[in-house]
Amino acid sequence: MIYIGILGFGVVGSGVTEVISMNSEKITTHLGQTLKVKRILDVREFPESEFADLLTSDADVFFNDSEISIVVETVGGVGIAYEFTKRALSQGKTVVTSNKELVATHGVELMSIASQNNCAYLFEAAVGGGIPIIRPLHRCLAANRIMKITGIVNGTTNYILTQMTLSKTDFKSALLRAQEKGYAEKNPSADIDGTDAQRKISILASIAMNGAYVDPNKIYTEGITTIDSTDIAYAKAMHAKIKLLAIFSNPDDTLAEMIVAPHLVDEEIPLCVASGVFNAIMVKGNALGDAMFYGKGAGRLATASAVVGDVLDGALHKGKNAHITQWYYPEKEILFPFDDMKVKALIRVLKTTDESKVREVFPQIDVEPMDSVVDNETSFIVGRDGNLTEKDLAEAINKIPGYISRIRIY
Q1: Is 173 helix (H, G, I), strand (E, B) or coil?
Q2: Which CATH architecture has domain 338-409?
Q3: Catalytic residues
């Protein structure tokens, strides 16, 4: 018998109990023994739940139960979840989580504590919900040098952008619909400002960089709050879709280029298959080439599925660290300067702006006029020749009379 404890009995925590219950026979066959939830720690009471007798609000009762060998953390955030995770790992209990904020913020420390105590810190569900991506990077693709990862890793923003495209609604209306359907939180800032995607790509990049920790706060990040119906119209005219992309690129195995921002993505690119709340992650390995991981990026049972998968992994590797590569704080800079990254973009300006003025601020850079999709403005594609840097783009648009906005092109 393998006993687990669950921290937090909310959406994911209750989903974990359901997955274990409905797939108990398959799990027993896989492990060779029974997996059982022993205790659930939550300050709330759930008298109607079939697991009500397992609930406790006493942390000492939970952590002092020596039969519990694996702890599932579904509390979220970096407050009490951080303290509870350290406590469990220090006791030699493997911890499984879907908490991308905690992993992205304290992953190095928590993996180190796990290693010191012969257990594991596992977080498959922290990126992509139910989509397998962490374990494939650690194991299936371990023989590859990861050259690039491009992901649509936030279902909320993808749903909003899809609604803006299909229903021709504005951003605020699409966000409200996402909230009504439960796809967006009451406070959606972590999603729409790009922070959630920023944390997720930092986790994937840290794995791709062989454990060299990528601080999410060092990744240039933009959200989708400035995207409007005219941007959507331009995307349609260009046979493209607007997607919030999280990008890691390191083809030469030197400094990695990273960004999280909305991009115009050609409809022929496989990533565009992801619509609504679905996620898609493209991975390029130097031996494998390109592969894509696609599926639901969130959802109660989808996320719980990934969590329970890690629980089984932890059970099968009892007394060991199930990760191939530990994370560490690099002594040298590992990110390429954002200002020097190459970029191409669609520039929107007022109709009154003379084309010569636009060309003037982009000397020696390709400037391609576009057909306008609205009467009072015009647009240009700049940097298609690959010679435009982010710094030059930022400086140039500040000099354009009648400048409206810009959006990057993938």
Answers
A1: helix
A2: 2-Layer Sandwich (3.30)
A3: 200
pTM: 0.95
For 2-129+301-316, which CATH superfamily applies? Answer: NAD(P)-binding Rossmann-like Domain (3.40.50.720)
What are the pLDDT digits (tens) for 235-277? Answer: 999 999 999 999 999 999 999 999 999 999 999 999 999 999 9
Two structure tokens written together for 27: 């799990």
The one-letter amino acid code at 287 reads A
The DSSP H or E segment spanning 27 is helix 24-31
Q: Which of 276, 313, 282, 270 is nearest to 296 (CA)?
A: 276
Q: Walk along the chain (410 residues) in steps of 10 and give the mean pLDDT of each run.
A: 96 95 95 96 91 95 97 96 98 96 97 94 94 92 95 96 94 95 92 98 97 98 97 97 98 96 97 95 96 89 94 88 83 97 98 94 94 93 96 97 97
Fold of 134-296: Dihydrodipicolinate Reductase; domain 2 (3.30.360)
**Which residues, at least 6 apart from 154, have a Cβ–Cβ distance to it below 8 Å?**
191, 194, 196, 197, 200, 244, 246, 279, 297
Distance separating alpha carbons of residues 361 and 265, to the nearest angstrom: 26
